[in-house]
């Protein structure tokens, strides 16, 4: 039996591996979306950054007084014609170069939205920045068969202050300093200020997570004969598309969880400062079939227009299939073990008929109702010389007051003869009614019964 529990436990553990992805929020800390086109000089990219910081003031206080019901929203959108955006592009390119990549950003726009939403007991400060632009210099070498594409530029991060048109967009605490003076004074110099220390433009984990751990998928739609009917763009026509995604919980990337930091500070009273960042995510597409490799510490992709011969799987991640088949196999083993144990236990039980043999029982009609109506209920009794009257149900016993009422004179038909007493029939032949067992207290129709009622006659005749 222990073996059965062991197998069931292994199956449950395998099932748990499939549910690693549960509980992850839909928001992100940094999310990359890019499509690399080897045959083009430029390729689009978008990097989004999001962070939320909560401040609890359940007992009110000076911070609660400033934040409760206070809503503030700041936003801006600027393209590369703005000198501050040009400066940010240069800093990003310097960061890419330090990572060993030769890729650079040629054009980019900045779109940010910051907002404070003050509730009754908690305020939320949301930060959102989106960088959209174009990449160049991503092709390392190219020949008639293969193109090597540089993918080491993914960590688009900048440290320090980043000001765009007078608004600080990289330091989270700047929003508090500029708009919430009471909260600024309360948090400054405390452990709560540490929650605001991490810069917003941080995508280091997108680069630190090796591409071999990303989930790979390629789409061969572009090389189908009917590809034109799908309305495909020119850059994918005649090619397959390779895609890598990260941010999902699996055995390759591990369990992805929200990054939560929390500090409790005491000013005029206790406040809680907490930051929440969901796992970084990435969606990287390349037109063509890509194979990941590393050159001088920089990740690259060898890209061909079509998939090599013999490639039938369109995605990595065979581990879920292995787990599913493994679970099915373990379930089968557990089922076999269960039936084996059950069968062995059944053999140890006593076999054959248990209790009284039905052939030794005889039926007796036991139930009737007043008014001359006879029901069909009965009881079973062992065959033998024992009179049923000695074993009859106590529910058929007449209450004393009812028997006394029956003894009083009435206009009922004359009582039957003494020799008919054993029949217990309250009705006579002249009235042509059935035996009324309830009135007489018994209805025993044996072979001596002389009652003229049809019921007793039939029963008495069958017993002669």
Main traits of this protein?
single chain; 464 residues; alpha+beta; 2 domains; four-stranded antiparallel beta sheet; 10 helices; 20 strands
Largest sheet: 10 strands, mixed
Proportion of residues in extended strands: 25-35%
String of helices and strands: HEEHEHEEEEEEHHHEEEEEEEHEEEEHHH
Strand tally is 20
The global form is flat
**Which secondary-structure class do the elements indicate?**
alpha+beta
User: How many distinct domains?
Assistant: 2
Distance between the termini: 62 Å
Overall average residue pLDDT: 74
- Taking all Cα atoms into account, the compactness measure Rg is 45 Å
- In DSSP terms (H or I, runs of 4 or more residues), the helix count works out at 10
Low-confidence stretches: 1-27, 222-232, 318-324, 402-407, 410-422, 425-434, 436-442
Helix content: 10-25%
Question: How would you portray this structure in words?
Answer:
The protein has 464 residues and is an alpha+beta fold. It folds into two domains: 329 residues, no CATH class; 105 residues, no CATH class. The protein is built from ten helices and 20 strands. The strands form five sheets. Strands 1, 2, 3, 4, 5, 10, 11, 12, 13 and 14 form a ten-stranded mixed β-sheet that branches. A four-stranded antiparallel β-sheet has the order 6-7-16-15, with no helix packed on it. Strand 4 and strand 5 form a beta hairpin. The longest helix is centred in the last third of the chain and has 30 residues.
């Amino acid at each position: 039996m222990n073996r059965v529990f062991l197998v069931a436990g292994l199956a449950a553990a395998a099932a748990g591996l499939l549910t690693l992805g549960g509980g992850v929020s839909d928001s992100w800390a940094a999310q990359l979306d890019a499509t690399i086109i080897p045959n083009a000089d430029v390729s689009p990219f978008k990097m989004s950054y999001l962070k939320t910081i909560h401040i609890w003031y359940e007992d009110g206080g000076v911070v609660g007084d400033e934040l409760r019901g206070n809503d503030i929203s700041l936003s801006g959108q600027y393209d590369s014609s703005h000198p501050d955006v040009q400066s940010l592009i240069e800093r990003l390119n310097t960061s890419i170069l330090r990572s060993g990549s030769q890729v650079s950003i040629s054009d980019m726009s900045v779109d940010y939205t910051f907002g404070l939403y003050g509730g009754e007991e908690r305020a939320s400060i949301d930060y959102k920045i989106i960088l959209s632009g174009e990449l160049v210099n991503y092709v390392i070498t190219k020949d008639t068969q293969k193109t090597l594409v540089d993918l080491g530029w993914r960590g688009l991060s900048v440290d320090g202050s980043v000001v765009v048109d007078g608004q600080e967009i990289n330091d989270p605490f700047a929003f508090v300093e500029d708009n919430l003076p009471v909260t600024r004074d309360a948090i400054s110099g405390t452990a709560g200020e540490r929650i605001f220390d991490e810069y917003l433009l941080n995508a280091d984990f997108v680069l630190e997570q090796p591409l071999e751990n990303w989930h790979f998928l390629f789409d061969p739609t572009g090389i189908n004969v009917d590809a034109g009917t799908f309305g495909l763009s020119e850059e994918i026509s005649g090619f397959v598309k390779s895609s890598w995604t990260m941010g999902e919980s699996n055995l390759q990337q591990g369990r992805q969880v929200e990054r939560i930091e929390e500090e409790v500070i005491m000013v005029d009273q206790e406040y809680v400062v907490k930051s929440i960042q969901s796992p970084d995510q990435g969606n990287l597409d390349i037109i063509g079939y890509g194979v990941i490799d590393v050159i001088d510490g920089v990740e690259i992709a060898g890209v061909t227009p079509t998939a090599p011969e013999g490639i039938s799987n369109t995605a990595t991640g065979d581990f879920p299939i292995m787990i599913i088949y493994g679970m099915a196999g373990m379930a089968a083993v557990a089922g076999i073990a269960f039936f084996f144990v059950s069968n062995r236990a059944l053999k140890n039980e006593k076999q054959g008929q248990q209790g009284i043999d039905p052939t030794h029982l005889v039926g007796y009609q036991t139930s009737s109702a007043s008014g001359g109506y006879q029901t069909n209920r009965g009881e079973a009794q062992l065959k033998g010389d024992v009179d049923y009257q000695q074993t009859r149900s106590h529910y058929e016993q007449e209450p004393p007051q009812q028997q006394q009422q029956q003894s009083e004179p009435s206009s009922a038909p004359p009582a039957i003869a003494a020799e008919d007493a054993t029949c217990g029939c309250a009705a006579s032949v002249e009235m042509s009614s059935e035996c009324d067992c309830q009135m007489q207290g018994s209805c025993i129709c044996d072979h001596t019964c002389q009652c003229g009622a049809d019921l007793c006659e039939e029963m008495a005749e069958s017993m002669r």
